[in-house]
Write a structure and sequence with these properties.
By secondary structure, this protein is mainly β. Helices cover about 10% and strands about 55% of the residues. This is Adhesin domain-containing protein.
């Protein structure tokens, strides 16, 4: 009797394993990778990248070998997910990139792919870039005039330089893997995430970092004094020369978190 029970149990396990493999095989057979690419106008002075609710990463980079700006799409989808394409619309000096198509229900919970924008250095330095997305990470590593990045669910990874940078995310961190250069204004806002940024050369004239739940770490060059306004629920450590006179301040630094620590210190040329 025991032998019969064991045989029956083994048979059930074999059938279940075969069924699982069949389902997995069917699922993999429906997966496909979509790609699309476009050359962007040489007269472009403003670029908007809007992915709506399709989960993708956005990469903005400067390519010293590029002779013209370009945008490419790679997207993981299923055969039942519908076609996607990278729609390009240009009106005057503004170019808009938008994802068109229906997202896959299978990959709706994850990052489905990425949009890569490659810019020649001279054109990038005169360009204003705006990114808008519901879900996905922004990798901004270009030397542009202005950068405005907005995402709901995802981090923003910064690099390069700009005259002005403004970043807003709800669930995600704002970080710089290497020190960045911002000349006039830097603003980063997140509800749930850390803000960790170092500045090189000189700090922007105005720096604003606000998080509801997260730590804030700002590194600025030793070219103060700085007018510092810092407020946190936990600890606040300011390790830079300070002044209360706006006219004497090299920069104005504002940092605020409702639940986290704040550190403002001199940036390290060797990074952390």
């Amino acid at each position: 009797m025991v032998r019969g029970i064991l045989v029956a149990a083994a048979a059930v396990l074999v059938v279940a394993a075969v069924a699982a493999l069949a389902v997995t095989s069917w699922g993999l057979s429906t997966v496909r990778v979509l790609s699309d690419s476009h050359t962007l106008p040489a007269a472009m002075r403003s670029l908007v990248v809007d992915t709506a609710d399709i989960p993708v990463a956005i990469r903005i980079s400067t390519d010293p070998d590029a002779r013209e700006a370009s945008a490419s799409l790679r997207l993981v989808n299923t055969t039942s997910g519908g076609d996607h394409r990278l729609a390009v619309t240009t009106v005057g000096p503004e170019t808009r990139l938008a994802l068109e198509g229906r997202p896959s229900p299978t990959f709706g919970w994850a990052r489905g792919g990425e949009i890569t924008v490659s810019l020649p250095p001279e054109q990038a330095r005169r360009l204003t870039v705006r990114t808008r997305q519901q879900t996905g990470v922004v990798f901004a590593h270009a030397d542009v005039d202005q950068l405005f990045a907005r995402t709901t669910h995802g981090a923003v990874i910064l690099g390069g330089s700009a005259r002005r940078m403004e970043v807003q995310t709800v669930d995600g961190a704002v970080t710089a893997r290497d020190p960045i250069s911002v000349r006039e204004r830097f603003s980063a806002t997140t509800s749930d995430g850390d803000i960790v940024v170092d500045f090189r050369d000189a700090a922007p004239r105005t720096v604003e970092a606000i998080s509801r739940n997260g730590n804030i770490v700002l590194g600025v060059p030793d070219r103060g004094p700085y007018l510092v306004r810092a407020q946190s629920s936990d600890s606040t450590r300011v390790r830079v020369p300070e002044t209360t006179d706006p006219a004497a301040a090299a920069s104005e630094l504002t940092a605020r978190t409702d639940n986290g620590n704040i550190v403002i210190e001199e940036s390290d040329d060797g990074w952390r």
